[in-house]
Specification:
With about 500 residues, the protein is α+β, with helices and mostly antiparallel strands. The protein has 18 helices and 7 strands. The strands form 2 sheets. Strands 2-4-5-7-6 form a 5-stranded mixed sheet. Strands 1-3 form a two-stranded antiparallel sheet. The radius of gyration is 34 Å and the shape is elongated.
């Protein structure tokens, strides 16, 4: 037994000669390439940081194995490896901390501390980079190492103690393997440093196998943690998709039931008109017809409304799908909640003949929030009211404004470069309340040129439907509601675009 143990110790002490060191470096290079590919595929930052961490450690160990092509490479550029060993250690610390921040989602748990730490790393990296350049511009190698050991390392030790405490408190599935891996490499580094202190290089090389083993075990724990993280992310994505599917099924059922109810009511009212026409006198018949025609107009309004909902919901769903495709789960869940609220408001308004202008603008704002996902910098939405006006005192048909916002986005802002905005202003003008919806898009003329090849004139259909609904609503409620479209043209980008002006009068 002692003979085998002695053989094992001898084998380990010759790690720089027998291939153990070379194997460790090869494994680190493999992990770097593998996780770089995973980052390209999944766009998760913790894969990228782990890939850089493994690559930096592998490069830092290139000069260790004896009688290998790596040693030949090391002796070909000895000055380069001598000057870069400290910067590589610096990068290793920074990248490893970023890896922990991403895989443990520390920004969610401790946003202020993490923001402070990221600002610190950016600042310290700039300073260290200046010292590193000094090794080439002047004889600043010694100064760089002094800064590393007497400034960076003490501060890093403080952050290390705080970080271990925060990581231990974090409620993530990968916390334990991360802590175990961190503990293993920490103990291995301490043992190598403690046992080789004030010893010659040959003695240090014999005990360096401790660091190799610690590095391999650390990477086993970290790889296991990444596997858990990937599995968790996959399950979360499946849950989001299932929730979205349930919402779609429920909304589809509600819409079908509403359309059937509207069709039944419409057929029943028409049948009643035909039946009454044979039973009552001519004068009474005219009054009854007028009453029923008013109800039929209301049903037509609701029918117009229900026809708009599917396309409206489809556009909003496509916006949420953008987040799911990009893998941004937290943002997808946030906008899914916004989408659920939007659908609830739309379905509630579908059962009404009229809603307040405030409710209508709230639905439009939720719709804009979802459509903003398609744009990198979003859409700036501004609402301006005169002091004596109240949004909840004006009744309008449900979803009457939504086609205007949809046209502004799809036919104006979608092709507009730079900042995008939609400004809504409500003011008093003589006997009318005037609602202005203006965007800084490319304008109707340019949009018509771009869409000239398309066979479906989506915008004109939407505007015709709005016009018909406003006419029916005005007839039923004895009001004067109408709109006009103004094209703005100017060389100043902030002065061009399209403006829809709605007039609401009694």
């Amino acid at each position: 037994m002692n003979e085998y143990f002695s053989y094992l110790i001898e084998f380990l002490e010759n790690s720089n000669r027998n291939g153990l060191a070379l194997m460790t470096i090869a494994i680190l290079f493999y992990l770097a390439v593998f996780h770089c590919i995973l980052y390209i595929k999944n766009q998760e930052k913790y894969f990228l940081y782990y890939s850089i961490y493994a690559f930096v450690n592998a490069v830092a160990l290139i000069g260790r194995p004896y009688k290998s092509y790596l040693k030949d490479l090391y002796f070909t550029y000895p000055e380069f490896f001598r000057l870069t060993i400290t910067p590589l250690q610096f990068i290793s610390f920074i990248v490893f901390s970023y890896f922990l921040i991403e895989i443990l989602r520390l920004k969610t748990y401790y946003p202020r501390f993490i923001q402070f730490y990221i600002s610190y790393t950016k600042g310290i990296s700039i300073v260290f980079g200046i010292f590193f350049l000094g090794t080439f511009l002047w004889d600043g190698y010694a100064l760089m190492r002094q800064f590393y050991f007497f400034v960076f390392m003490p501060i890093t030790f403080v952050f290390l103690v705080i970080g271990i405490y925060l990581v231990a408190k974090t409620k993530e599935k990968v916390t334990k393997p991360i802590l175990f891996g961190f503990l293993v490499i920490g103990i291995a580094s301490f043992l190598v440093g403690f046992l080789t202190a004030e010893k010659d290089v040959e003695f240090g090389n014999k005990l360096f196998y401790i660091f190799y083993l610690g590095l391999l075990i650390e990477n086993i724990f970290f790889t296991y943690a990444l596997a858990i993280k990937q599995r968790t992310a996959f399950l979360e994505k499946i849950d989001v998709q299932k929730k979205l599917l349930r919402e779609l099924q429920e909304n589809a059922s509600l819409r079908i039931a509403l359309n059937e109810e509207l069709s039944t009511q419409l057929a029943k009212k028409r049948k009643n008109i035909l039946s009454l026409s044979e039973q009552v006198e001519s004068e009474r018949m005219e009054r009854v017809k007028a009453s029923y025609e008013q109800e039929i107009n209301k049903l037509h309004l609701q029918s117009f409304h229900s026809q708009m909902n599917p396309l409206f919901i489809f556009n909003a769903l496509n916006s949420v799908k953008v987040c799911l495709i990009s893998g941004d789960k937290d943002r997808a869940i946030f906008y899914l909640n916004r989408f659920s609220k939007l659908i609830r408001l739309v379905l509630e308004s579908s059962r009404k003949n009229q809603i307040t202008l405030g409710e209508e603008l709230e639905i439009a704002k939720l719709y804009l929030d979802l459509e903003s996902i398609r744009f990198e910098d979003g859409i700036d939405f501004q609402l301006t009211l005169e002091d004596d006006l109240r949004l909840n005192e004006l009744a309008v048909p449900p979803l009457i404004l939504q086609p205007f916002f949809e046209n502004a986005i799809w036919h104006g802002l979608m092709h507009q470069a730079g900042p995008k905005w939609i400004k809504v202003r409500l003011s008093k003008e003589k006997e009318y309340l005037k609602l202005s919806i203006r965007d800084n898009g490319i304008g109707r003329k340019e949009s018509a040129r771009i869409n000239s090849a398309k066979t479906i004139k989506k915008e004109s259909i939407g505007l015709k439907m709005v016009k018909d609904r406003l006419e029916l609503f005005s007839q039923n409620e004895s009001v004067r509601y109408f709109f006009e479209i103004v094209d703005h043209t100017s060389e100043d980008r902030d002065s061009h675009g399209t403006e829809v002006i709605c007039y609401f009068g009694k």
